[in-house]
Design brief:
The chain has eleven helices and 16 strands. The strands form four sheets. Strands 6-5-4-7-10-15-16 form a seven-stranded mixed sheet. It is globular, with a radius of gyration of 20 Å. α1 (32-40) runs antiparallel to α2 (47-66), α2 (47-66) runs antiparallel to α3 and α3 runs antiparallel to α4 (95-108). It is of the alpha/beta class. The chain has two domains: 5-132, Four Helix Bundle (Hemerythrin (Met), subunit A) (Up-down Bundle), CATH 1.20.120.420; 136-343, Rossmann fold (3-Layer(aba) Sandwich). It binds 5-S-methyl-1-O-phosphono-5-thio-D-ribulose (MRU).
């Protein structure tokens, strides 16, 4: 199975996604700063994957602080600061603060001398649960999508590379393929960073799935021709009302789907659902270096000094989303109620 990171002893090995598909180079990360660095530079990306790496970052920081024999309060303050450093790397994906807060809550309940083992185990659990969630999203997707053999279209990379493995949107694609129900998947190239071309096309092609790469601008033609049965994307943050932030270009796809009567699905683990965020208007959209638009790798495709604007995500309103497929089941409109019900802890775990 393709994995974006692997733990080997005390070293987190991270596949450098900036170099794919040309080169498979693994970076070695051994501390919290290293984890923040690989998220910051997008060597690792995708909401669940950056949550997993951030969790490991807190575990590394806890191990290193515990080894210094600091005063209890000092160690705890410094661990919170390490968490804040990780959260500051990328603002839109809620999986990042979700994972950091989860690790910090465990640290709060644990004596500093036990931090190293306890927080490492919690970071392991974050990654293991994410992989399980992706497998479950794939299974639920089989029922959520229209029946029969399907051609789907996806945007960006919500695949094995964006998660602890298997993927969310691509988890559904993989499950369809395994069930003999995938006719074809169209992968948008996803300008400006081309996660669709570099990553989605790479991981699906490598596994022998029927993938066809298209420029982002081709989606309208495909939908108008009736060549796509469903569009499935991931999400970086799902608000309480179902509005969903995902890679820039997702919103226009959902509008096209509504126009052509094609169902549009979000696939995301519940760690991407942010009930504290009332609507999509409250989601912070990351703005990135305009050079990503002016250039493709080292090649300038526009005048170097032309004005350029580079928002990394957009918000698809809930009204355009047919269903949100999570590991706990499928939410359908009205999302305020269905998401709240999915997020409620199972009876036995309630206070
Ligand atoms: O900027 P990126 O590459 O981190 O953006 C990734 C996406 O938008 C994904 O679709 C999203 O994180 C879901 S990944 C399962």
């Amino acid at each position: 199975m393709i994995r974006p990171f692997l733990l080997s002893g005390d070293v987190l090995r991270v596949l450098d996604q900036r170099l794919l598909p040309r080169e498979e180079r693994w970076l070695e990360v051994t501390d919290c700063d290293g984890c923040a660095g690989v998220i910051d530079t997008m060597a690792v990306r995708g909401a669940p994957a950056i949550g997993c790496v951030a969790a490991r970052g807190v575990a590394f920081a806890a191990r290193d602080l515990a080894a210094r024999g600091l005063q209890d309060a000092d160690a705890r303050d410094r661990l919170r600061a390490a968490g804040a450093r990780l959260v500051a790397t990328r603002p839109t994906a809620v999986n990042l603060p979700w994972a950091v807060e989860r690790l910090l809550a465990v640290a709060d309940a644990t004596p500093v001398e036990q931090w190293a083992a306890r927080l490492a185990a919690e970071a392991d659990a974050v990654a293991a649960e994410d992989l399980e969630a992706c497998l479950a999203i794939g299974r639920h997707g089989l029922d959520a999508l229209p029946p029969g053999r399907l051609t789907v279209l996806t945007h960006c990379n919500a695949g094995a590379l964006a998660t602890a493995g298997y993927g969310t949107a691509l988890g559904i694609v993989r499950a369809l393929h395994d069930a003999g129900r995938l006719a074809r998947v169209f992968a948008d190239d996803t300008r400006p960073r081309q996660q669709g071309a570099r990553l989605t096309a790479w991981e699906l092609h490598r596994e022998g799935l029927p993938v066809t790469l298209v420029a982002d601008t081709v989606a309208g033609l495909l939908l108008r021709r009736g060549a796509v049965d469903a569009v499935v994307t991931g999400a970086d943050r799902v608000a309480a009302n179902g509005d969903s932030a995902n890679k820039i270009g997702t919103y226009q796809l959902a509008v096209l789907c509504a126009h052509h009567g094609v169902p549009f699905y979000i696939a995301a683990p519940t760690s991407t659902v942010d009930l504290a965020c009332p609507t999509g208007d409250a989601i912070v959209i990351e703005e990135r270096d305009p050079d990503e638009v002016r250039r493709v790798d080292d090649v300038w495709v526009a005048p170097a000094d032309v004005d350029a604007y580079n928002p990394a995500f957009d918000v698809t309103p809930a009204s355009l989303i047919t269903a949100i497929v999570t590991e706990r089941g499928v939410a359908r409109p009205s999302y305020r109620e269905t998401l709240a019900a999915l997020m409620r802890p199972p009876r036995g775990n309630r206070d």
